[in-house]
What does this fold into?
Amino acid sequence: MEAVPRNPVETELTVTSPEQMRELGLKLAKLLRAGDLVMLSGELGAGKTTLARGLGEGLGVRGAVTSPTFVIARVHPSLGDGPPLVHVDAYRLGGGLDEMEDLDLDVSLPDSVIVVEWGEGKVEELTDDRLQVRIHRAVGDTTDEVRHVTFTPLGERWEAADLGVLTA
It folds into this structure.
């Protein structure tokens, strides 16, 4: 992985394989704690679920982290003393936090790490403190595995976090 400085707030990394994306999730998991919201965005096939799989592995949670597209959300309890992982795929949800209220994310947030794929415009009202992760890949007829991952920390919690550990 190669780090590219963008500005004082954002961190951008280049990932060249699914294994590196999973490893990035493992590194990010070391920064996570109960109450954290991580929003993943990117095209279909960009690697959002692969990153979430690494997060789950790094957090030491039960169950395989797979795409929750058809169940909307999965809760993965911790196998140790860490927080559970709530993995949400908001792709099929139309809009706003109102539609997501049935998921009780606001109730789960204080005690869990919540990772939401396709959450832009849908879960921002949960907290001012969140980490936005955008995964960019080449689109069209390509087998290119290169991904550009941009981390944007929002709120005091994430602006104080050392995202530099992701480049190590």
In short: The mean pLDDT is 84. The first strand starts at residue 2 and ends at 5. Strands lie at 2-5, 11-15, 37-42, 73-76, 85-89, 113-117, 130-137, 147-154.
